[in-house]
Specification:
By secondary structure, the chain is of the alpha+beta class. The protein folds into two domains: 135 residues, NADH Oxidase; 68 residues, no CATH class. Helix content is 50%, strand content 11%. It contains eleven helices and four strands; from the N terminus they run H-H-E-H-H-E-H-H-H-H-H-E-H-E-H. The radius of gyration is 21 Å and the shape is globular. It starts with 6 loop residues before the first helix and ends with a helix.
């Protein structure tokens, strides 16, 4: 049995693999990597995501077409679709508030730390996420920009802002998944090139859900890794103040 890689080893080993071998993956191991994805940091701990694990060959075939017949989908042994569920913010905010109440017990009324946390989920999150065809977001943006003239303020309150925030969180989860897969010797390829509407129809997802990315999973072949890794010099992207 191969020893699991360290975090640094897994990061260096991870490559976007375009052609996978015919070797089967252990579904339970992939599922455990998806569980690791669910532990990723995310905005306000709202966890506005879902992970769809595809092993059914017929569905894989349909999704290959939706992924524009890319080899990374065509040869994948399994697929994992990262789905953004911004529409679930009320349920997830309530779940956080209920968890805080359970942890606090009777202290939730008298302890300022718990009171502030509950106010965050019961008042601030609804203010941030409630919108009506983008109109409320526009007016909220004016309010926070004016407030920002006098004090630091959270400015990402429009419909577009919240989309960006939720997709960033989903991308963090995707990275957790891919590094976890690499650590056990499995390979992945994140694909943004897909007909996301077709993907949603195949998976029977709600209209308000959004596809963050489709990830092909398998074991790499030699031709599946397109050459040496290229990165611009680290000195060009690193700054120390």
């Amino acid at each position: 049995m191969n020893k699991e890689k360290t975090v640094s080893e897994a990061i260096k080993n991870r490559r976007s693999v375009r052609v996978f071998s015919k070797n089967e993956l252990d579904t339970d191991k992939v599922k455990n990597c998806i569980y690791n994805a669910s532990l990723a940091p995310n905005s306000s701990n709202l966890q506005l995501w879902e992970f769809i694990h595809i092993t059914n060959k017929e569905i894989l075939k349909k999704l290959t077409k939706a992924c524009l017949n890319q080899n990374a989908a065509k040869t994948a042994n399994q697929l994992v679709i990262i789905v953004v569920r911004k529409d679930l913010w009320k349920d997830r905010a309530k779940a956080n508030a209920d968890f805080i109440k359970k942890q606090a017990g009777d202290n939730s009324i008298t302890n300022n730390k718990y009171k502030m946390a509950l106010n965050y989920y019961n008042k601030l999150i609804p203010f941030t996420y409630t919108d009506f065809f983008g109109i409320l977001g526009f007016f909220k943006s004016i309010i926070v920009q004016l407030t920002g003239l006098f004090m630091p303020v959270f400015r990402q309150v429009t419909f577009t802002d919240k989309r960006i925030v939720t997709h960033k969180s989903a991308a963090l989860a995707a990275q957790n998944f891919m590094i976890s897969m690499s650590s056990i010797g499995y390979d992945t390829c994140p694909m943004e090139g897909s007909d996301t509407l077709m993907v949603k129809k195949i998976l029977k997802l709600p209209r308000k859900s959004e596809i963050n990315m489709v990830i092909g999973c398998g074991i790499r072949t030699k031709e599946g890794v397109y050459g040496e890794r290229f990165r611009v010099p680290f000195e060009k992207v690193y700054k120390s103040l």
